[in-house]
Amino acid sequence: MYLPTAFRDDRPEVAHDVIRRHPLGLLVSAGSGGLLADPLPFLVYPEEGEFGTLRAHLARANPHWQVLSSVDECMVAFMAEQAYVSPAWYAAKREHGKVVPTWNYAAVHAWGKPRVIEDAAWLRRLLNDLTHSQESHRLEPWHVDDAPADYLEVMVGAIVGVEIPIRRLEGKFKASQNRPAADRAGVVEGLRADGAAAMAALVEARGQGKL
User: Fold this and answer.
1) Which PANTHER family match (predicted)?
2) pTM of the predicted model as reported, rounded to 2 decimal places
């Protein structure tokens, strides 16, 4: 993606945090039939490989997994905070009016060679990890083993796993870093008034060099 220096952040730990907070990634690959894209919930394992490893699963009925078994590289795109930025929020509007709208956002792209996995034990571990990542904070978390064993066997047989050791990571955090401090303060105030508190916090943190 287009990465102006002001918005670029390729630190693996920052990218991994985005993936954990926004695990639904868009898996993109290019096979003989052209481009394919599927949104999938991913888990990142930071300690595995130079930049971490991504794992997910697809429906066996989805032909994308067969394409993955034959390609040398795929990409997964994760979108985090995002919000429209009105030029009316800039102090510069009142000073000279030379302002235009924009869109702030945070995104992470990861590349790697996918490995297709059909092993039932591997898939069960992945399902346990994925469920735990979403259920552990609940008062009564649901566990994979809460479902009947015969039902689980059928469900596991209906999916295929994908593992992607990350070769390359890119992070883009477009959070008004290219604007003067007075404009950033106006953006923070405007975003909060619009209910975009997460994006407002990101603009404030990036402006203060806290991330």
Assistant:
1) PROTEASE SYNTHASE AND SPORULATION PROTEIN PAI 2 (PTHR35802)
2) 0.93
